[in-house]
């Protein structure tokens, strides 16, 4: 392969200073002496001792919901999930800027911060139909050169309480959505069996995975988690199902937690947490010790559910560490991987180590270790996509 770029003075996670030879969109060579004998006419980038690390993966966002690109809209409060859904639908009817424009602006921000893969939930209901999905699928074409996009057909208004939604979920997968979503089988649809029957039927028909929002708490939420895990095994979907939020895991006693975690581990059901505000959250370190796969993601970024969120996964990891009292270098490094390798694996895009033959997609951060990166959260990062620099200092340059 013909070298296209030489990177010198990059620091590996192990602390070694190395050079990289890029050949277009691949790493051709990496090591302490990799640049020896390379034609001096090949362009050179000096990493200045910066940390070479995997790109971020935001495994749970809502490209169709974000209000980025609009003047600031005050938050609409709601004390239940159902009330907030209705408030959001009311706001959705008044927003004039298209999903393509708002979602595209968010994708550009994510890429500028070093996130190169996302999973976006997209509202599917009898009011909006498949319009949001069609818009997000169009973003795959317009912004796929920056960020890889997976889509989840998300029944935000419920399945049974919004008759016709089950058929729309089927149509969404047929139209190109990657996974089937779900939402609070008890809290929203008031029918755990009926809700799970509907969404798992679509997943089973097409052989796709599921990513289910679960806010239901306590013993009820734990029961639903175990039901989801049992169905995952029954349909042979091990490793293809995620439960997002799962607040109940932060509320359980030892016995119920242990029983539920064991079922999740056996079924390969993964847990996503966005490290949300003053609510219980899944204890990631304890879950990992039980063999449950976990990852961190943004969820809502400047939308009707929250005025907060900026798309910076390094900031999100820092919030998770602060909320769960993760302080040691080992814990901070493990948390960093909850936003890189872990979600990549769960989204079906394993990355392995950065080595010869790997895609030339990575970040270089001004830090000496993953722990320092999480603690300092530097914005002065350099983002490589397909072997080219696409962003520096939190700004796109392409």
Topology:
Blueprint: E1 5-11, E2 17-23, E3 26-31, E4 44-46, E5 51-53, E6 56-61, H1 81-92, H2 99-112, E7 115-123, H3 131-143, E8 148-154, H4 165-175, E9 179-183, H5 192-206, E10 210-214, H6 218-234, E11 241-245, H7 254-267, E12 270-273, H8 284-289, E13 294-296, H9 313-323, H10 329-337, H11 341-346, E14 362-365, H12 370-376, E15 382-385, E16 388-392, E17 395-396
Helix pairs in contact: 2-3, 4-5, 6-7, 9-10, 10-12
Describe the protein in words:
- By secondary structure, the chain is of the alpha/beta class.
- The two termini are 25 Å apart.
- The mean pLDDT is 95.
- It is built from twelve helices and 17 strands.
- Helix 6 runs parallel beside helix 7 and helix 9 (313-323) packs across helix 10.
- The longest helix has 17 residues, at 218-234.
- The chain has an eight-stranded parallel beta sheet with strand order 6-7-8-9-10-11-12-13. A five-stranded antiparallel beta sheet has the order 5-14-15-16-17, covered by helices on one side. Strands 3-2-1-4 form a four-stranded mixed beta sheet, with no helix packed on it.
- It has helices at 81-92, 99-112, 131-143, 165-175, 192-206, 218-234, 254-267, 284-289, 313-323, 329-337, 341-346, 370-376; strands at residues 5-11, 17-23, 26-31, 44-46, 51-53, 56-61, 115-123, 148-154, 179-183, 210-214, 241-245, 270-273, 294-296, 362-365, 382-385, 388-392, 395-396.
Offer a concise description of the structure.
This protein is of the alpha/beta class and 398 residues long. The protein has helices spanning 81-92, 99-112, 131-143, 165-175, 192-206, 218-234, 254-267, 284-289, 313-323, 329-337, 341-346, 370-376, and strands at 5-11, 17-23, 26-31, 44-46, 51-53, 56-61, 115-123, 148-154, 179-183, 210-214, 241-245, 270-273, 294-296, 362-365, 382-385, 388-392, 395-396.
